[in-house]
Amino acid sequence: MAQFRLQGSKVLAVDLAGDTVKARNGSMVAYTGQMGFKKLSGGGDGLRGMVTRRLTGERMEVMEVKGQGTCFFADQATEINLVRLNGETLFVESDNLLCTEATLRTGTSFTGLNGMASGNGLFTTKVEGQGWAAVTSRGPAVILRVAQGLPLRVDPGAYVAHTGNLNRALKSGAGWTTLIGEGGGEAMQVEFTGEGLVYVQPSERLTFGGDA
Amino acid sequence: MSYPPQPNNPYGQQPPPYPPQAPPPGYSQQQYQQSYQATQVGMPAPQLPPPGGQFGAPLLQAPGGEGPQVWDPHSLPADDNVNPYCFSVDLNGAYYLQKGKMIAYYGEMRFSGIGRGVLDRVLEQNFNSPLHASDWVVAEGRGKLLLADRAYDLNSYDLEDGNLTVRSGNLLAFEPSLRLKQSIIPGFLTLIGTGKFVAASNGPVHFVEPPIRVDPQALVGWADCPAPCHHYDHSYLHGVLGGIRHLTGIGGASGEEHQYEFIGAGQVLMQSSEALMAERSVGVVGEQSGVPHQQPAQAVPGLGNLGNLGDLGRRFGL
């Protein structure tokens, strides 16, 4: 049973006792003990993953880490958020998934056209099962609860991940003024309704609709 | 007493009077430090998180203790930092913000460009920079609005009948009870009046008191001081040897020959790095005699050239 813990806020330490975790390729920064690192094809989902990830463009380079000791992971000094899954599903941008326990299954999920318009791609990565997952965010993620009657709108560039029974819908605030460059600057928003949690980073990655 | 004269607040919304505290002019340093420390240790856990596991969401219990805090519209702070990098505005009326700094919101809001619509006339009173400053938008409505900027540190500042000048790229949002004007220093904006505004800095902000000389790239803004002047340390470029050095570049320049010098009473705001935020256009000042105008953006002075010495080369007859 791999133990996930934070070493500071930007380094993930995983204690391994002969078991395995899946981590983003090249994210290991240090380790103690004996470790083996093996590149996995197709985002760790084998042949099916190779096909679907190639088709969907939701690329994920994943390695399998196995051994005895403690392995440290980090990615460009981004903040790390630990998420414990007990049978729920975590939807996360593949760029933000750092490390998952071997007991978790990863896959791709169709997000619909809203993903394309927001520049995040049509698909997102799905993590499900029982165990720990580590999600990176540029700046500590703010976790926002969505409940009935409390919809949340998020800038697509700041969206990191979400869990729970949430519906994503793209909302456009663009009007004719956007076309002449006098728009509100927030032309694209993703609306989450339902019940669940949304992880938002205090930073915006460059998105297609971000400057409109 | 109150200069400049205050127009009536068009929104009928007065910011809560902030208890003026000892240090910087009304800056909520205490709150800021609290929230800063809370997240420095990784996951913020200032309060007990709501019970996890509901709504089919995962339990957010870290193995070693409390999990991260989950926010909802009721627990989000009103006009305060959520963490050092994210600011929550309790919107009830209107707020000015820079384009693209909204990361999420609850409630009903509309974002519209400045200088159009029914608010046009009241805006003119507050937004005293050229109205075509297309980098600014107005958020109208009610709800909780989260602001962030590239994971830079955000601070809110309360002005009470005061003035503060800030680099245009660092200003994120401000209450409509403040009036925004262009500073006489190109690239800076001055806020006058009473109200709250949010500014970003790369690394925490430090307050220093004049007399002081600061690096141009580390300067975020200043309050109450008279406008700064330039200061050049070029003495080692004097004389024959210095002239040779200047001409040939042998020996190089330290890159710190140019500073801003502040004198008088007030506060100077500095950031902890020399990373600049992108300049935001604030419109162009009409060219008139006697009006300093904005020069085209210059590259950040790098090593290897003597560019940041400005026109000093003239002293050597170049």
TrEMBL record, chain A:
<protein>
    <recommendedName>
        <fullName>AIM24 family protein</fullName>
    </recommendedName>
</protein>
<dbReference type="InterPro" id="IPR016031">
    <property type="entry name" value="Trp_RNA-bd_attenuator-like_dom"/>
</dbReference>
<dbReference type="Pfam" id="PF01987">
    <property type="entry name" value="AIM24"/>
</dbReference>
<dbReference type="InterPro" id="IPR002838">
    <property type="entry name" value="AIM24"/>
</dbReference>
<dbReference type="InterPro" id="IPR036983">
    <property type="entry name" value="AIM24_sf"/>
</dbReference>
From TrEMBL, chain B:
<dbReference type="InterPro" id="IPR036983">
    <property type="entry name" value="AIM24_sf"/>
</dbReference>
<feature type="region of interest" description="Disordered">
    <location>
        <begin position="1"/>
        <end position="76"/>
    </location>
</feature>
<dbReference type="InterPro" id="IPR016031">
    <property type="entry name" value="Trp_RNA-bd_attenuator-like_dom"/>
</dbReference>
<feature type="compositionally biased region" description="Pro residues">
    <location>
        <begin position="1"/>
        <end position="26"/>
    </location>
</feature>
<dbReference type="InterPro" id="IPR002838">
    <property type="entry name" value="AIM24"/>
</dbReference>
<protein>
    <recommendedName>
        <fullName>Ser or Arg-related nuclear matrix protein</fullName>
    </recommendedName>
</protein>
<dbReference type="Pfam" id="PF01987">
    <property type="entry name" value="AIM24"/>
</dbReference>
<feature type="compositionally biased region" description="Low complexity">
    <location>
        <begin position="27"/>
        <end position="38"/>
    </location>
</feature>
